[in-house]
Amino acid sequence: MVISSGESSAVEGAAKLLRSGKLVAVPTETVYGLAGDATNEKAVAEIFTVKERPYFDPLILHLPDHSWIERLTALNAEHIGLVNALVQNFWPGPLTLLLPKSSRVSDLVTASLPTVAIRMPANATLQAILGRAGIPVAAPSANRFGRVSPTTAQHVLDELGTRIPLIVDDGPTQVGVESTIVEPRGDRLLLHRPGPVTENMLAAFGVVETPVLDGLVKAPGQTQSHYAPDKRLVLIDSGVVPPDADSAALLSWGDNPNASRFQVVTSLSKSRDLVEAASKLFASLRALDRAPVNVIYVERVPETGIGKAIMNRLQRAVREAR
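and the corresponding structure tokens:
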């Protein structure tokens, strides 16, 4: 069932289902999430089942209030100052902190890793649901594993259909790409996933480092293939016209002077606004995936600010021909 966030029963209905161990698709400011009670192992296991997500990929926990930081983490003196500064400046918002976990956190949530990923979302509807439920929820993107993330309730319905009892429709998400994930280490910030909170924004709080990926999943959403449409996706430089353009779709950066040579064209942002591009990325990929084309070409965007997050998602969405 899909229910509008504006209906009086939406918040209470979602909270009641979560407290009873059921799953609910909820809006966040980034993408729609598939939420389940993080303190209930059966609910957490159901998230993996519904999403067809491998158990080695940990989950992000969304908190109803700051008091849950102490309950879910095992912070020491090395972390407390930096963590407090990040929380004060970026919460509620699209920043996930990867911290040493407490014994209260199930190994199922963290894929048996010693860390837990937590954040406090900025979406008002989700804040109300969490406040009414009074529990933290695990809430990865509300889609089948590896697929394009959902940014509308309709995307969730297309992906999960009747697998879950409730989808709370709060309209299109504002940000459009998943949260930034950082791991505070002394005066350093290990950037595990770029996102809306950019490197420049984080640099005021410590030295930002990007760990070298060694094939092992150390934080949520690090699997090699992710965010992928069914159609083959190929990254190209702006202005390039592939030989099969007449049977292909183009997701352009700005206005492409050769747009007429492609069968279908959508622009991430005609004014080349990276924030707009991020908000439209996943919806555009989903729309082009339904077009009668053989391949989707996507023009690269500048890897500055949130552009780094956009390119991270696109590079991992690239698939070989099927």
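(Above: one complete record from the training split.) The mean pLDDT is 92.
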